[in-house]
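S.,

As promised, the adenosine-5'-tetraphosphate run. Input:
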Amino acid sequence: MKKRIFSGAQPTGKLHIGNYLGALKNWVALQDDYDALYCIVNLHSITLPQNPDELRRNTLDLARVYLAAGLDPSRSIIFVQSDVPQHAELAWVLSCITRLGELERMTQFKDKGKGNTERVGVGLLTYPVLMAADILLYQTDLVPVGQDQKQHLELCRDIAERFNRDFGETFRIPDPYIPKAGASIKSLLDPERKMSKSDENANGSIFLTDDADTILKKFKRAVTDSGTAITFDESRPAINNLLTIYQLVTDKTAEECVVHFEGKGYGQFKPELAEAVIEFLRPFQEKVQHFDDEHVTNILKEGAEKARAIAAVTLQDVYSRMGITR
Ligand code: AQP
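Predicted complex:
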């Protein structure tokens, strides 16, 4: 039996190269060796206000991105979270055994809520419980995520262990899969912050749909550190980030990258980096337009049926262990 992986992204806007290198690239590689479920987590995206028409459009667009990146519906289950009502049901159950203090400690809640507890939606606080339900419903072994989700995954493990302790072995305890390189791609304008879809300044991110000119301009504007050597160096986060992007899109080793740029400066490095990213994105950009709405909708419908069949078994087990009869 293959081990199972589950992961997802929010349909909150245009995906950037951080999402691709930190998550999607690994999802595609992992689907060969694992029984994989890839979800479009639209219920997560409403933790912040969304325009309904845009959310509908973004949901289909994200499915197109999954397919163009190489997720294969004949090998992986690709589906939309709200098509499987067990996610929201299990989230309620798990919220009853999650502690308020645990949720208040989550850094993403502190960042996105900005300390404004009077006005911030409760969903932003309980988001990690829904994420735990997403993962635990499928008896997941491994969750490939970027560094930003590590804390939520640790909470998911704690919640599962608590449930198993109180009601008997029910959930498999999932492990995170965080890539060695690319787990946290930084903003091009501020290498202390992660590249983010919701960043107000579009120049900090390379979007998957950016054209060649835009990519070149964004890299030319990218901030640099003091010093000129093109090397991996933790104390120079800007060049570290740019060289990591170069390494991941060219599939070179770290050493090969450093040797390649020895004796060269930013003047040569930046255009070459831009060219490498443009070439990396080219096949994806060509493919992404070829999936029409009907085709994508059918794939999602089939995926949801398969996901519901697995999720229903877990939820039934949870309810019966808790004395809830249906
Ligand atoms: N900068 C990043 N570097 C590496 N991985 C990243 N991920 C996100 N940002 C980076 C990983 O991408 C997957 C999908 O992310 P998401 O859609 O759930 O959204 P997010 O983590 O909240 O990412 P964003 O781009 O910053 O979106 P907004 O601005 O909407 O919050 C996840 O596996 C994530 O770890």
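The chain has 13 helices and five strands. The longest helix spans residues 293-322.

- D.
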